[in-house]
Specification:
The protein is α/β, with parallel strands linked by helices and about 150 residues long. It has a single domain (about 1-145), classed as Ribose 5-phosphate Isomerase B, Chain: A. Helices cover about 50% and strands about 15% of the residues. It contains 6 helices and 5 strands. The protein has a 5-stranded parallel beta sheet with strand order 2-1-3-5-4, with helices on both faces. Strand 1 (about 1-5), helix 1 and strand 2 (about 30) form a beta-alpha-beta unit. Helix 1 packs across helix 5 (about 115-125) and helix 4 packs parallel to helix 5. The termini are far apart.
């Protein structure tokens, strides 16, 4: 799978760990930055990953900032993005199964590295269930198109 990853300065170290973990599992990871612990603005990186996901340049995205909130808000401004902030594996799995989330986000100041690995495993191991959930996802897309 081709995965876009993005972060701000608060999540730089965690991004490196998660990127390495995903690559070791055989995924291709496209790193949209940031590339240091120097102050960086999360909206820039949320947008970059969001645009790559929306354009289908990557299959999905993983965003990490201090809380996961700001960077996911930026990604969600991109048409076609359904980014969800998650802090544990059950929500990560369910947001894919029920909401067809194409990006997950979490906070480096909220979860540790091992929990972050479990979150990405749960998300990547899940499949959108369709059915009644497809109607609701369509409703989200309809709101976006108004």
């Amino acid at each position: 799978m081709k995965i876009g990853i993005g972060n701000d300065h608060a999540a730089y170290d965690m991004k490196l760990e998660i990127k390495k973990y995903l690559e070791e599992k055989g995924h291709e990871v496209i790193d949209f930055g940031c590339h240091s612990t120097e102050r960086a603005n999360y909206p820039e990186f949320g947008e970059k990953v969001g645009r790559a996901v929306a354009a289908k340049e990557v299959d999905c995205g993983v965003l990490i900032c201090g809380t996961g909130i700001g960077i996911s808000m930026a990604a969600n401004k991109v048409k076609g993005v359904r980014a969800a902030v998650v802090s544990e594996p059950v929500s990560a799995r369910l947001t894919k199964e029920h909401n067809d989330a194409n990006i997950i986000a979490f906070g480096a100041r909220i979860v540790g590295v091992e929990l972050a690995k479990a979150i990405v495993d749960a998300y990547l191991g899940a499949t959108f269930q369709g059915g009644r959930h497809a109607e609701r996802v369509q409703m989200l897309m309809d709101i976006e198109n108004k």
